[in-house]
Amino acid sequence: MKWYYALFLIFLIVMSVLFIYRAVMPQSYNSNGVYFDYPGTWAELTPNQSNNSSSASKSNVVAVGDPNSAETGNIIVLVQKTNKSGTLEEIIEASKADLKKDWGATMLSDNIITVDGRQAHDIVYVTDSETNKKERMVIFDKNNMVYCIILGGSASAFDGQKDNFDLIVNSFRVTE
Known about the structure:
Layout: H1 3-24, E1 27-31, E2 34-38, E3 43-44, E4 60-65, E5 75-83, H2 88-103, E6 106-115, E7 118-126, E8 133-142, E9 145-154, H3 155-158, H4 162-171, E10 173-174
Antiparallel strand pairs: 1-2, 2-10, 3-4, 4-5, 5-9, 6-7, 7-8, 8-9
């Protein structure tokens, strides 16, 4: 074997190991007062990729997802932060009402979980048949702010992302 074949083979092995390492090891987001881990193959998304309107993006901290499928709405995670006005229960009821009114959402579940040491509502819903989305909305309050993590995408892709969604929610921390 010629030396350049061996060098090419070594290059291919190194690149394969790096690709596998990136796919297996999560990345971390640590900015804008929040920290969380997300899958290594995902990336921070631009407002264009995450389909955010300018009014909705005012409260957005960050959007992450698979950059290859984000524009088609397959899997996107959006973190929002707003000033707390009212009780958490009032905010959650208003959010559910808005989802039903604006998106024709049907609530599937509303469970209480713990995020960053705080009680949070973990709400799963589907939108109308036109948009055909399934989403998980985790809402909690801390330091007089309300944090909303929206995890979702197409109804067909949602269930296969449970481990990725759990990684984000379980590692989520408020840093300010």
